[in-house]
Amino acid sequence: MPSGTATTGSDSVCAIVVTFNRRELLRGCLQRLGAQTHVVDRIIVVDNASGDGTPEMVAAEFPDVVLVRLPENVGGAGGFHAGLERGMELGHDWLWLLDDDTYATPEALAALLAGAQRAPVKPMLLASQVRWKDESLHPMNVSLPRWNDLDLMMQSAAHGLLEIRWSTYVSVAIRREALERYGLTRAHYFLWADDIEHTVRILRNERGYLVPESIVHHWTETAYSPSSEFTPRFYYHVRNSILTLRGQSFAPAERAIYFMHTANSIVQFLRRHGRRSEARSIVLRGVRDGLRGPVQ
Fold first, then answer.
1. Full-model pTM
2. How many CA atoms lie within 13 A of 103 on its CB side?
3. Which domain holds residue 62?
4. Percent of the chain with pLDDT over 90
5. How many domains, in total, are found in the chain?
6. Beta carbons within 8 Å of 134's beta carbon, 6+ residues apart
7. pLDDT for 162-196, tens place per residue?
């Protein structure tokens, strides 16, 4: 058991990390989880059929970690779905979701739980402030404030919190009760926007906060956004954003905002990479499959 303050008499926390062929980054992530000042009661690593020795490293260096080995790569969405199922089976109160390149500062978890204690209303979700290596906010992981309810915004600010409408899985703690009410992440999203869809679904009728003093670093090679780099994965951003828009988790005004957010990212992607025929094909396939694919 890692050093720190035990959770006896308080809610139990299970950290869930999804990984695929990033053994060294995962090692750094797990080392930092073990150094939390507030003990993580359990850590689950979901391995998406890595071929780089990840399962062997986890078993040898982190024997207390629960390792879930999937037979094939089902993406971040499928991995978090499997991890949440396992965490709920084990009976934990909070499920703390992190990417394998999330480097949590020692006080990150303690700060999240302290935020829950001072929240004006019982929160179903708590998010960390996500920074890049140079301490700037990471553009991939900026939580959206609940901008359309100033009373709630002011109420949360009075308690040192930021009321949010969505967040990403780089560091977000979800209460078990919320998962029982609203379900798990959509496994068929594979990757990108699955976390936004899930947190939007939960926070349509519940309260969630960003806790500013809970800080993690997203240890990516560059501080990228979905549209900044040319990658075939942008297909999932387009498809899954449209699937989310077709769902029932947004209020009408919010749907318009998210539509503009998605449209802007597509425009930026095509401006940067549109001379490549493959870029246009990625966008067209994403739009087509988003319009006709299953929302649930």
1. 0.91
2. 13
3. 13-218
4. 79
5. 2
6. 223
7. 999 999 999 999 999 999 999 999 999 999 999 99
